[in-house]
């Protein structure tokens, strides 16, 4: 089937795409076919229902004909006492019998006509039903064949697509592997160059750092020596100044000690002076005042001592 379909691809009502037939067209085609099958089944069911209805009507007509026949037979039988009946009743019975015979003939004719029509309709419906079934069977067979051809073609196309995709994947994998190797080599070359540059830069930085450290150490040593010399000079100046201050303090201490000794001597003479003052006050209290004009007492040693005490110490 697949080879026949490959030889006659134009017989299929589908559009060829990359992965086989168009899915939407195939789905729409089978949906239309399914709808037609449902419509045909509906028509078949309607025809069968109509045939059953006609058969029921025929059976009902037969029952009516049978009932009419029984009535006619019953009415057509003369009564047992017909001999004693009057002529009028006899004529009525004959008329009824004739009418019943006529009705029976008409009913039989109608029943035969209805039976014939029903049989013709049933035969036509049966023939139509069989024709529709045969047509549906043919269409189903044709669709199955077409479906098998379509599926075979789709499988063939899918196999070709898979094979092409695998070949494309292999080619892309080989290209990716080659690119990866090339990128890896470029990366290794770049890393070696960068490593060399970094090593050289580190060496240069180390050399410059050592030189800078040596220069800073030299500068720090010179600065420390300068500061040490300056501190030594300042310390020497401070020591000399301290010695001068110590000498001045020693001289001042001698002076202060001498003054303190003088003050001590003066303090030692104060009790004698107080005793002399007390004696003079007693004498003044015991001697009456000789004149209104006071006479200055003669200066004695006590007064001189008091004047000396009132004088400044450093004079």
**Backbone CA Rg:** 80 Å
Q: What does the main sheet amount to?
A: 2 strands, antiparallel
**For the terminal residues, how far apart are their CA atoms?**
155 Å
Unreliable stretches covering 5 or more consecutive residues: 1-10, 80-85, 289-315
Figure out the total of helices: 4
Helix content: over 70%
Order of helices and strands: HEEHHH
What share of residues are in beta strands? Answer: under 5%
The backbone outline, from C-alpha atoms, is: elongated
Give the overall average pLDDT. 75
Structural class: mainly alpha
Strand segment tally: 2
Strand order across the biggest sheet? 1-2
Can you give a write-up of this model?
The chain is mainly α. The chain has a domain at 2-190. The chain is built from four helices and two strands, in the order αββααα. The chain has a two-stranded antiparallel ribbon with strand order 1-2. A hairpin with a 2-residue loop joins strand 1 and strand 2. Helix 2 (23-76) packs antiparallel against helix 3 (87-286). The longest helix is centred in the middle third of the chain and has 200 residues, at 87-286. It is elongated, with a radius of gyration of 80 Å. Mean pLDDT is 75; it is low at 1-10, 80-85 and 289-315.
Secondary structure layout plus pairing:
Layout: H1 2-7, E1 16-17, E2 20-21, H2 23-76, H3 87-286, H4 301-310
Antiparallel strand pairs: 1-2
Brief rundown of the structure:
The protein has a domain at 2-190. 86% of the residues lie in helices and 1% in strands.
Key traits:
315 residues; mainly alpha; 4 helices; 1% strand
């Amino acid at each position: 089937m697949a080879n026949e379909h490959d030889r006659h691809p134009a017989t299929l009502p589908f559009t060829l795409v990359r992965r086989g037939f168009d899915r939407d067209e195939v789905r729409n085609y089978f949906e239309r076919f399914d709808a037609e099958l449902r419509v045909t089944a509906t028509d078949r069911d309607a025809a069968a229902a109509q045939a059953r209805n006609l058969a029921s009507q025929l059976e009902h007509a037969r029952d009516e004909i049978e009932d009419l026949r029984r009535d006619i037979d019953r009415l057509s039988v003369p009564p047992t006492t017909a001999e004693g009946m009057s002529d009028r009743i006899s004529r009525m019975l004959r008329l009824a019998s004739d009418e019943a015979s006529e009705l029976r003939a008409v009913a039989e004719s109608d029943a035969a006509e209805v039976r014939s029509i029903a049989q013709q309709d049933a035969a036509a419906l049966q023939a139509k039903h069989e024709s529709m079934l045969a047509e549906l069977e043919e269409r189903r067979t044709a669709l199955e064949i077409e479906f098998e051809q379509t599926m075979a073609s789709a499988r063939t196309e899918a196999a070709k697509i898979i094979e092409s995709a695998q070949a494309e994947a292999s080619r892309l994998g080989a290209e990716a592997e080659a690119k990866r190797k090339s990128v890896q080599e470029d990366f290794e070359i770049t890393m070696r160059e960068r490593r060399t540059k970094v090593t050289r830069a580190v060496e240069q930085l180390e050399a410059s750092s050592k030189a800078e450290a040596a220069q800073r150490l030299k500068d720090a040593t010179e600065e420390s020596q300068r500061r040490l010399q300056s501190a030594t000079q300042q310390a020497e100046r401070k020591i000399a100044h301290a010695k001068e201050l110590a000498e001045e303090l020693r001289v001042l201490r001698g002076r202060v000690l001498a003054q303190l000794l003088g003050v001590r001597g003066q303090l030692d003479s104060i009790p004698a002076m107080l005793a002399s003052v007390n004696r003079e006050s007693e004498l003044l209290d015991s001697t009456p005042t000789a004149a209104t004009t006071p006479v200055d007492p003669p200066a004695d040693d006590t007064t001189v001592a008091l004047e000396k005490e009132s004088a400044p110490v450093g004079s």
